[in-house]
Amino acid sequence: MGFLLLSCQREDVVPGQLLLRIKNATSYQFDEVYVNTSNGENLYGILKASSTSDYKEFEAAYRYAYIKLKIQGEEFVIQPIDYVGEELLTEGKYTYVLSMYDYENKLLQLEFKKE
User: Fold this and answer.
1) Predicted structure pTM score
2) Which domain of life, per UniProt (predicted)?
């Protein structure tokens, strides 16, 4: 007789759950990383260069969001104008990949990935 034990890993998706993480695709450390999807907000704290955060749960989100962070004490913001025409994401795991577009003008680029 044998037994099979199954367990959920910490980052498994529970039905109805929407999880977002941040990937820092730059050579800079991100400090005070804050994400607001207009349907929820989370603080991700410090994210080292070329690293990825843990997933955080949101009630709802879009392919892009308001993101504020600091690099070497300077504030960088991704500010959506609106979400007209956008559809809410379904349950699952997603990543916002942030790369540097223009450091002098404090411009980041966001790439959306479904896991």
Assistant:
1) 0.86
2) Bacteria
Q: Give the residue from 40, 22, 46 showing the smallest Cα distance to 108.
A: 22
User: Percent of the chain beyond pLDDT 70?
Assistant: 89
Q: Are 11 and 22 in contact (CB under 8 A)?
A: no
Say yes or no to pLDDT of 31 above 60.
yes
Using one digit for the tens of pLDDT, what is the confidence trace for 34-50?
Answer: 999 998 999 999 999 99
Query: What CATH number labels 18-114?
Result: 2.60.40.2890
* Three-state secondary-structure class, residue 57: strand
Give 44's contacts (C-beta < 8 A, 6+ positions apart). Answer: 22, 33, 34, 35, 53, 56
Strands in 56-58's sheet, in edge-to-edge order, are 56-58, 18-24, 92-102, 107-114
